[in-house]
Amino acid sequence: MSESSQRPLPEDRPLEIAGRVYNSRLLVGTGKYRDMTETGHAIEASGAEIVTFAVRRTNLGQNPDEPNLLDVVSPDRYTMLPNTAGCYTAKDAVRTCKLARELLDGHDLVKLEVLGEEKTLYPNMTETLVAAEELIRDGFRVMVYCSDDPLLAKRLEEMGCIAIMPLGAPIGSGLGIQNRYNIRLIAENANVPVLVDAGVGTASDATLAMELGCDGVLMNTAIALAQDPIRMAKAMRLAIESGRDAYLAGRMPKKLYASASSPIDGTFF
Amino acid sequence: MQIQVNGNPMELPDDATVAVLIDQLELSGKRLAVEVNEDIVPRSQHTEFSLSDGDRVEVVHAIGGG
Description:
The complex is a heterodimer. By secondary structure, chain A is an alpha/beta fold. Chain A has a single domain (29-249), classed as Aldolase class I (TIM Barrel). Chain A is 36% helix and 16% strand. Chain A has nine helices and ten strands. In chain A, helix 3 crosses helix 4 (125-137) and helix 5 (150-159) runs parallel beside helix 6 (180-189). Chain B is mainly beta. Chain B has one domain: Beta-grasp domain (Ubiquitin-like (UB roll), Roll). Chain B has one helix at 18-24; strands at 2-5, 8-11, 33-36, 39-40, 56-64. The model of chain B has no long low-confidence stretch (mean pLDDT 95). The interface between A and B is medium-sized, with 39 and 26 residues. Strand 4 of chain A pairs antiparallel with strand 5 of chain B, so a sheet runs across the interface.
């Protein structure tokens, strides 16, 4: 028996969020695209079933015929995930979620993010905890953007958050997963889905998140700011599938030195 | 009366409802959510909810974001 086969393989559990099972483990944002048409095509190519969006003031008296995001990305087809991007306090985040729930006729799934400062957009975890508690009490189902602290991730789960979404690197940075040890620990310890949210720059970053045992990845900029967003959306779809399969397959153990793949027996030289 | 809509002053007839406001803004039938003085006014109440002088109204919609 080889060394690798002695380790139990991870269980292949479907991604279930708020009582619904999803085939795709890639969640995508809708910001930074050139236009609505490109947004729609990229989401289509990504295979994503959960799509996040922001809530902002309606422009009054300007472009009344501007296409509405919800007309291009239909809530009939996608699970819409309103986010609280841009909120720096628990109060603003809770307000945004309530507006989003009204906007989506009572749909109570939200992505909570409370930011700490503009340079890094790093999550303000004390405000995040306050907002999460209030939202859960109010009946929201909260997917939470958070730091990659394993203890805080567990605390958010225990409070009742339905998905834990640690950052891999700062939002929009494309730096890839900076602390794979923490992401792995969070994924290993969680009983709810763990999704890397933010920091992915290219396909290998998404694959790594999945190889570490994450249940999914949420990304926006990596697709939207690629030179060819639609091709990158497809690359990300495949990257997520590859990483998930590699995780489930149980990778070979790492060795410090070589081990020949061809047999020594039968050599004639 | 004068109210604030998305941070801008706006004149409306006294006792105008949220529905009247949305109509004036040419936003009828659009997917949006309305908050008056930081409280949600559900869609079902737009035709009944009367605005008052000095009310702060927010009209929001979905936009691209991550």
